[in-house]
């Protein structure tokens, strides 16, 4: 029997955070505690301490242009941010923690991601290249070249052996992380890719596209597994850390929660005004967050997933949840 301690089986809005002055573009939970990192168009990185009755926010300054992406290392010791100022910064996530800038690319840096081992940092840029960096020594390792337009997102597989990236060249590329060689290219037939994320198994990659679809690819046989039309323009997609669900967001002001095992949407969540640019799960999957063009961050309680990764029976029908 599952260890179920929740009493409400629907996602619930817990916090509405306001601190950024412009659009929120990226969100990342600290895997070790309840810190949340955010970044956006106001050139800032913010670190939130989220407790039931005590929310605090600290601003980190250093970038001189839009901050496009932020992520924590899996040990929680560092957070990294990428920016349109062509740099990546490595931060210590404490009050007034120091940062180390990398002159990473010759154009805007769109995406940054730690390897699962925390030894390397992956960046992608408008200069059409992916780059790998050594975290400990803060030095460049290698470039991966193949995309022919701006790179939007790149992620490591859970075991760190594979990298997936999407770009404005209508492609999803799969790379060998050790050799830096592209081992397969998927062609996106409609729209371009905006965000990618690996399923925890490491064998499936979800891709959000400007056409509004989310596509799930099997990288073992290089075939598309599932195709969902969910938004007017899909901006982000993330898998639940231990269950077969994913979140997606779009320019249509909605968040979708999809059961990939049954192949259907479960929930449509509303609350933001304008585009929702980013969503992400906490490491334990108990919470997820959304950030939008309204400069707000919403923190949600997941609730519909049990401790063994299955869904509550009440989630068996599609529901719509609106928040004023």
TrEMBL record:
Q: Tell me, what's a Pfam family for it? A: WD40
One biological process GO term for this chain?
cilium assembly
Q: Does the keyword Repeat apply?
A: yes
Annotated InterPro entries: Reg_chr_condens, WD40/YVTN_repeat-like_dom_sf, WD40_PAC1, WD40_repeat_CS, WD40_repeat_dom_sf, WD40_rpt, WDR55/POC1
Q: Does Repeat appear among the keywords?
A: yes
Query: What superkingdom heads the lineage?
Result: Eukaryota
User: Which key words are in the record?
Assistant: Repeat, WD repeat
**Similarity field:** Belongs to the WD repeat POC1 family.
Q: What is this protein called?
A: Uncharacterized protein
